[in-house]
Write a structure and sequence with these properties.
Helix content is 78%, strand content 0%. It has 85 residues and is an all-alpha fold. The longest helix is centred in the middle third of the chain and has 37 residues. The relative contact order is 0.05. It has a domain of 26 residues.
Length: 85
């Protein structure tokens, strides 16, 4: 009787791990979900940064000038740029 109970218990444990919605599938889905949540958090931060930059580019003249000078190398007429590299 003890061996029968033990073998049934072992079969049930294997069944819980192997079936299509078993513990292994649950673990894989949980890992995938956590990676998606992490990716969403990263993309939310990136979106907020882009929204802030967009707002600054629309309304802040100093930020517009800074961006134009740093990224597009704009200068005022008669201005000389000295680079120390």
């Amino acid at each position: 009787m003890n061996k029968l109970l033990l073998s049934i218990l072992i079969c049930m444990i294997f069944f819980l791990f192997i079936k299509s919605d078993g513990l292994m599938d649950y673990h894989n889905q949980k890992t995938y979900y956590e990676s998606l949540v992490s990716k969403k958090t990263k993309l939310d931060k990136e979106l907020n940064t882009i929204k802030t930059q967009n707002h600054l580019l629309k309304f802040n003249k100093r930020y517009i000038e800074k961006t134009a000078r740093e990224e597009y190398f704009y200068i005022y007429p008669g201005e000389i740029i000295v680079s120390f590299k």
